[in-house]
Amino acid sequence: MGRQNTLRHSQLQQRSQRVADEASADILERRIAPGAFFDSGRRYDPPKCQPRTRTAILEWVIAWAANELSECGMMWMYGTPGCGKSSLSQAISQLAFERGLLAASFFFSKGNPGLNTEKHLMATLAHQISLSIPETRRYIAQAVESDPSVFSGTLESQLQTLIVGPLLQAQQHYHGDRRSSSPKRWARLIVIDGLDECQGANSQRYIVRILSTALIHKRVPLYILISSRPEPPIRDSFNSYDLRDIIRTLVLDENYLPDADIRRYFWSRFESIKQNHPLRTYIPVVWPLSQIIQSLVQRSSGQFIYASTVIKYVDSPQHRPVERLDAVLRIHNTVGDIPFAELDCLYRHIFSAVQNIKGVLRILGALLFASRLFSKRQPSGAGELSIPVTDPRFLEELLSLNRGDVSFILGDLHSIINVPDTRRNTQSPAGNPRTLDNGIRIIHSSLIDFLTDRSRAGRYFINSVKVHAELARACCRNLLSGHKYVHQYAGQALVTHCRFSVLTNELLTDLLNFDLSLWMTTCKTWNDGGGPFEQAWSDLPLLLQWLRTQVRISSF
């Protein structure tokens, strides 16, 4: 009888622990950025290496990560914008996954809320590690169960609690288990792509520092690959004296023969267009000529982003590929041999063919600065963003556009922007953002660099001051009405948009006609209910101060 009671008690304990672990796993999953995984469905058409390209780099990185003679290591893979870093990171992640080496991945993306900030990094990595290294699962669950507030702590404390601690515990338990007679190779590679697309130089330095500290001082059994542009904050961090024993660098330059890979890419993709394009019957058998391929390779200047943008442009299903390629070949670079000259010419050509360029720049301006601002305002430790600022329907409500206008206006830009088909999902912005389709995604960050640099973009330049002024006016319109998420965004963003803008006559008129006392009363009511408007309430003095400053400046 006593033995039965003991067995029943043990079974109850195990069942209770399983329930607790599942609850902790659910808490962790709510804090991740699902679009950051290398194989996430939200990363529609992610960059890929063509077959037989960059094979030497792929095998070298995989061999480094599979090295059994050392416990840990870090590699920095860097190169200029458009040289194919993300394609390589994607290919490395895929190959490492197939060989059982991939522990986790995180792909930063400048234009995507949740993917352009470090706030979700550790939770996302820990979630993947719990799946790729099952031995860590219970320790990660116990860590969340014992401290549910861990997600509001520093990134360093999250790393220690959710990743370092569980990995070392699992390792110690494994080595202490006498039944483990043979050594076990765990997944050990973490791939972090686009560190330069994480907002803030301090955040970039911080990530490098805490990850390297975990490797050097804790001897965590991981290999960490970080790819980025060689921006000064990141470069200086990797050049630190403390990292010299564990760091390797991989420079994506001409030594790795990018021209040969780009040439293969062009031949492969043009062959695919000839076989699969809806208007393939109008394509000559011999197309394109080898000298045209060579011309495109030279124009690429080692930048895969130029090559992929050309292919996406030529492959438009609504146009004849031969005519589209001829249009590309007629583009003349008039600025000489400067970085990104050919890419800028291509971007300008694509925008020149747009019918409603004013509408395009208005939508892209809102997309860039609404998503960037809201990523900064998102509370630390929060789960997935509650406001779908990249969703076409959200932007249509915010900018007072008709339903379907965003997809229609951006329709000619499929080669540089991914726009989801909102007809597949009738869910409005007032619904659950987790059920929404993927938001609008700028395919490559070089387009953001182009649009926000007056010297490169020319008449397509997006002026941040003017965009913030227009978004401030949009907030005034939507603050006391509109759909739930537009309403919520307006409450949180009005003051910040004002402070980053200049006081135009139109904005002044909107603010003068705005019932500020009603807003203050409404905000206080929401605050008493624990709503999301605490920041708006605390920002009111800043709004008044900004107004006084702007009026004083305009009086001179």
TrEMBL record:
Key words of the record: Repeat
Protein name: Nephrocystin 3-like N-terminal domain-containing protein
SUPFAM superfamilies registered for this protein in UniProt: P-loop containing nucleoside triphosphate hydrolases
Domain Nephrocystin 3-like N-terminal, chain residue ranges per copy: 63-229
PANTHER family reported for this sequence: AMELOGENIN, FUNGAL STAND N-TERMINAL GOODBYE DOMAIN-CONTAINING PROTEIN-RELATED
Signal peptide: none
Pfam families: NPHP3_N
Family matches, as InterPro entries: NPHP3-like_N, P-loop_NTPase
Organism name: Crepidotus variabilis
Top-level taxon in the UniProt lineage: Eukaryota
Gene3D superfamilies assigned: P-loop containing nucleotide triphosphate hydrolases
